[in-house]
Automatic annotation (TrEMBL):
One Pfam assignment: S1
Keywords carried by this UniProt record: Nucleotidyltransferase, RNA-binding, Transferase
This protein's name: Polyribonucleotide nucleotidyltransferase
PROSITE patterns linked to this entry: KH_TYPE_1, S1
MF-aspect GO terms: 3'-5'-RNA exonuclease activity; mRNA binding; polyribonucleotide nucleotidyltransferase activity
A GO BP entry: mRNA catabolic process
InterPro entries, per the entry: KH_dom (IPR004087), KH_dom_type_1 (IPR004088), KH_dom_type_1_sf (IPR036612), NA-bd_OB-fold (IPR012340), PNPase (IPR012162), S1_domain (IPR003029)
Gene Ontology cellular-component annotations: cytosol
Residue span(s) of domain S1 motif: 105-173
Organism of origin: Candidatus Gottesmanbacteria bacterium GW2011_GWB1_43_11
Domain of life: Bacteria
Length: 201
């Protein structure tokens, strides 16, 4: 009696396995597109403020533009979650760009974000901007940055200096042009209109 019951149970299991294999003959290589994605990024504690931004402005922008959920703890662990793999990847790239060190001599293709009387602010990495002073836009005197670039333009720039306030100074001059004397104008105003950062607890 017991042997007969075990035989029937074995046949039932084999029947179920055959049906399962018919539907999915191999294991899934990729998770469902609806499965939650989780990525952890470790950032230096002194860079947490750059990820959060003044009043939380930067982290809110990351969430709004990527659709991912982003949380930062006091140890510098950034947790990025979401159902969109693309959104999570974009948020991860954004966070990594924010804490990446920029060095003089590096070249970037950036996007003009803001125009001021003294120059143009160019985003060289997601969330990271530098200033191209009017004296570094072209050979000769530039009376108005809008005569050279407009908001949204893609421009090639190189990093010429990181000042003592960790602000990035850029140039659109390359090669022989970079060696020529440039028209000097007043330096950028103190504080560069970006505001300060105060971390909330």
């Amino acid at each position: 009696m017991i042997e007969e019951a075990l035989t029937r149970a074995r046949k039932a299991r084999l029947f179920i396995l055959e049906k399962m294999l018919a539907v999915m003959p191999t294991s899934r290589i990729h998770l469902s597109q609806y499965a939650p994605k989780v990525v952890l990024v470790k950032v230096p504690q002194d860079k947490i403020g750059e990820v959060i931004g003044p009043g939380g402005r930067v982290i809110r922008a990351i969430i709004a533009e990527t659709g991912a959920t982003v949380d930062v703890d006091d140890e510098g662990t950034v947790s990025i979650t979401g159902t969109s793999e693309d959104g999570v990847t974009r948020a991860k790239t954004w966070v990594e760009s924010l804490v990446r060190e920029v060095h003089p001599g590096e070249e970037y293709e950036g996007t003009v974000k803001r125009l001021m009387p003294f120059g143009a602010f160019v985003e060289i990495l997601p969330g990271k901007e530098g200033l191209v002073h009017v004296s570094q836009m072209a050979i000769g005197f530039v009376s108005d940055p809008a005569n050279i670039v407009k908001i949204g333009d893609k421009v090639k720039v190189r990093v010429i200096e990181i000042d003592d306030q960790h602000r990035i100074n850029l140039s659109m001059l390359f090669g022989e042009d970079a060696k020529k004397p440039v028209e000097r104008r007043a330096p950028r105003p103190f504080g560069n209109d970006r505001g300060g950062f105060r971390r909330r607890h």
